[in-house]
Amino acid sequence: MSKTQPQMGPFGDTLVDFLEAAARSYGARDALLFKPGFRYHRWSYRDVWEGAGRVATLLQERGVRKGDRVLIWAPNSPHWVLALFGTFRAGAVAVPLDLNCADDFAENVAARTQPAAAFVARMTPTAHEGLGIPEIYFEDMERLIHGLPQPRPVELAADDLAEVMFTSGTTGNPKGVMLTHGNLTANMRSVAQYVPGSPSDRLLSVLPLSHMFEQMGGLFLPMRSGANVTYPTSRQPTVLSKTMRERKVTLMLLVPQGLELLMGGIEREVRRQGREALWNRMLALAGRLPFGARRKLFRTVHKQLGGSLDMFICGGAALDQDLAAKWELLGFRVAQGYGATEASPVISFHRQDDPRYDSVGPPVPGVEVRIADDGEVLVKGPNVTGGYWEAPEATAEAFEDGWYKTGDQGFLDDEGFLHLRGRKKDMIVLPDGQNVFPEDIEAVLRKHDGVADAVVVGMPAGSGVEVHAALILADGADPDEAVSWANARLAPHQRVRAHTIWPGEDFPRTHTLKVKKGLVVDVLSGSAPARPAAPRPGGATRARGPLDIVAEITGYPVERLRPEMTLGEDLNLDSLGRVSLLSAIDEELGVYLDESQANDETTVGEIEEMVRQGAGNQARMSFPRWGMSWWCRGVRGAIQRAALFPVMRLGYRLSVTGQEHLLASDRPMVFAANHNLPWDNGLIIKAIPNSRRRRLSIAGAATLWRNPFWAVVNPLLGNGFPFSQEGAVRASLENVGDILDRGWTVLIYPEGKLTPGGPIQPFLAGTGLLAVEGRLDVVPIRLVIHHPGAPVRLPFLRRGDVEVRFGPPITFPPGTPYDEATAAIERTVKSL
Q1: pLDDT (tens digit per residue) in 517-575
Q2: 110 to each of 63, 105, 106, 134, how far by Cα in Å?
Q3: Residue 171's pLDDT band (cuts 50, 70, 90)
């Protein structure tokens, strides 16, 4: 971390203390980002603190008291973070659930914890409706907390319970790990000594926040260092790739299987292009190059992953050494660690300046590790849970003389680095007493070109067990040859004695991509049918269709969608929701559908048919970017001062009022002006203070860009850009969002047409949408024409008299109807 960067003060003993310290240290710095529509919504550290406080007030108003449990069952988003910290600030205990957990698992957890409230979302499985718990929808959260005061203070201590994390939903009685505020803050302190982080870090959160790995590594630790975290609206590859490019993501947390999937996708593309030989030569060359040169050598790969990605942090399973080394050859750093939910979760990790791929690193400071006589890894420290929720027997079974029994097999080397051998319960004990660790055999099998994936288990054979491999093969591969190849590289006691071709595209997995070996054994023994596995992100799965996208955007399960359902009345999609739907279809399916083809009455069946026919495909609007470049800003300023402003002075006597309203904030704004004079652009530009003028962008009718002259003059003089009032409105909105996200203020003319001399025409409805969904301050501008000059289009022949009036910025609460916002902006402009 750079010494010039802000440093966070003391942690405190609770997560509430931690959040308050982060807000105090980093204030207006971006903490969380999310793009539900055409631009990124941002929460600063101060916003997170205050927003979590208002959520706590909402909970308190609904009767939640200290020690009550609050369920969080929803997808990752900034609202998830506000719900979590809001629960803490109310003194309550968070009970996170994986979005995709089974209904009976959720019912079990709810029955055992008796939550006083539940945070859910449209995408939450419908089983939540039958739990009988008072609910708060993420989609309503900002509206519900708007204007609420900060909460009544609640006294918290380090030993107060913060979360109950229920693990392993494969049995009928999952265990609830009780984690105190002290457990979590202790682990944060420990890990921060090995991974200090930096305010320049930009994370993309793809693993579920309902799991401790993502919570600690992808939320608490980044917030400790002043970094920011972006939550994608979907985990589909096209959406992730676009988000990584837009946000210039530098860091991601992944389980090792996720790294395998990414590498597999890259190498499939290499094979598709027939460039394996070149690829292998580049890898060989990379081993002799410094790290920075590797990034340049594989710049195409880096571009696919956003261009700025520097580091992967892996956990959840052992990382294959060869896989990690290959990513390093490509110019990506890989750090791995080891943990368990019961340890909050980090037990060991590598220092960033001393990575190794043959182990999961030394224990982090403050955490003790020892190896039991039978090879089990035991852990002790202030980060370790005191036990399981209302399960004294399970608690007693999990501890031995104060040491937590992880269930993992491993050993410590002479340098104190921990090495894992696999789960104790998965270890195969042969009839002659020798121990076989399945992970060692699986790693060898996966190295064979014909093996896409492999799982090794012990299966009954005679009076004992034998090593059995379940294989997923590449097309045309010979399983006998693959097993023989692997056996030649294994010790005699490790060799595969029997194998089965797995009847599916993937093995059954947990939501962190771990194989459910118990289910594999059940299938192989014939006691359970082979069911289709949930598709792995980035893996070989069936292509997504329009129904999948409609389900994702609306939150309706795909099986409940019917062709006759309408986007409006049945699926509750407003105009912005329809824009999001069409954008997702464009990004994922490559079919551009015009907004005019989707309204309230459009049915799901009609969307499917339009996608099938590729209806509405057209050349997409292009938007100039050179007007925002550094050189153009300098040229523009010179031309404005040397030519534009003198012409304005010749043509008009200009008076300005309300300039102070433009300096009330340094955030991007929208300027909304009446359009009653052909030269109003020049007059408004001149009236705006230079500090705002330098980053001003002006929307113009898309038809102007058909003229090559204006296509150059508009970006040059005012960083102008085309804005379509009909047809490709979505592309125009997304371009406006991009401009705003780059820190520029946008000037629009909501009337949509020029009416020289007035009167002011009705404002277009999109004005309200832009203001509400963009979360923007709107500065109303009124050009008052005391005397237009003559002729109007050649003002320097007779001097006019014009006044530019700036009004106070207008903001709209979340959920404000677009037509109400439009009407309010129009009234304000007219009243100036």
Answers
A1: 888 888 887 765 655 444 444 333 445 677 887 877 777 777 778 887 888 777 777 66
A2: 18, 9, 6, 12
A3: very low
Q: In which region does residue 200 sit, left (phi positive, over 0), alpha (psi from -120 to 50) or beta (all else)?
A: alpha
Rounded to whole angstroms, the Cα distance separating 264 from 674 reads: 55
The Cα 472–Cα 505 span in angstroms is 7
Helix (H, G, I), strand (E, B) or coil at 274: coil
Tokens of 639: 């031309």
Task: Give tens-digit pLDDT for 100-155.
Answer: 888 888 999 999 999 999 999 988 887 778 888 999 999 899 999 999 999 999 99
- Strand-pairing partners, residue 454, are 471
Say how far apart CA 156 and CA 175 lie, in whole Å.
Answer: 25
The β-bridge relationship of strands 652-657 and 800-806 is: parallel
Cβ atoms 501, 468 nearer than 8 A: no
Contact of 55 with 86, CB cutoff 8 Å: yes
pLDDT in tens, 643-666: 988 988 888 889 999 988 888 778
814 confidence band (pLDDT: 50, 70, 90):
confident
CA distances from 28 to 25, 43, 249, 454 (A): 9, 9, 20, 49
Q: What does the alpha-carbon distance between residue 101 and residue 105 come to, in Å, rounded to a whole number?
A: 7
Best CA proximity match to 608, nearest among 587, 588, 585, 576:
585
What pLDDT sits at residue 195? 85
* Residues 6+ positions from 711 with CB-CB distance below 8 Å: 624, 704, 705
Joined tokens for residue 363 = 């224990």
Residue whose C-alpha is closest to residue 587's, from 243, 147, 194: 243
Q: Which residue has the tokens 């007779």?
A: 798
Partners of residue 783 on adjacent β-strands: 804
Q: What is the sign, positive or negative, of the torsion defined by CA atoms of 492, 493, 494, 495?
A: positive
CA distances from residue 587 to 136, 412, 822, 827 in whole angstroms, order as listed: 31, 48, 30, 38
User: Which pLDDT score is estimated for 282?
Assistant: 93
Side by side, the strands of the sheet bearing 161-167 are: 135-137, 117-120, 69-73, 93-96, 161-167, 175-180
Q: Which of 31, 117, 113 is nearest to 72 (CA)?
A: 117
Task: Return d(Cα 802, Cα 805) in angstroms, integer.
Answer: 10
Q: Pairing relation of β-strands 399-400 and 403-412?
A: antiparallel
Question: What's the one-letter identity of residue 501?
Answer: I
What's the predicted TM-score (pTM) here? 0.84
Cα angle vertex 210, ends 206, 212, to 5°? 90
| Burial environment of residue 762 by CB neighbours within 10 A (0 to 12, 13 to 18, 19 or more) | exposed
The predicted-structure confidence for 435-470, as pLDDT tens digits, reads as follows 788 888 888 888 888 888 899 988 888 777 889 999
CB atoms within 10 A of CB 74: 26
- 815 vs 414, residue with greater confidence: 414
- What does the alpha-carbon distance between residue 331 and residue 250 come to, in Å, rounded to a whole number? 13
The residue type at 559: E
- Bridge-based pairing state of the strands 777-787 and 69-73: unpaired
Q: Are 38 and 736 in contact (CB under 8 A)?
A: yes
Percent of the chain with pLDDT over 90: 42
User: Alpha carbon of 148 to those of 17, 46, 269, 484, 656: distances in Å?
Assistant: 21, 16, 52, 68, 37
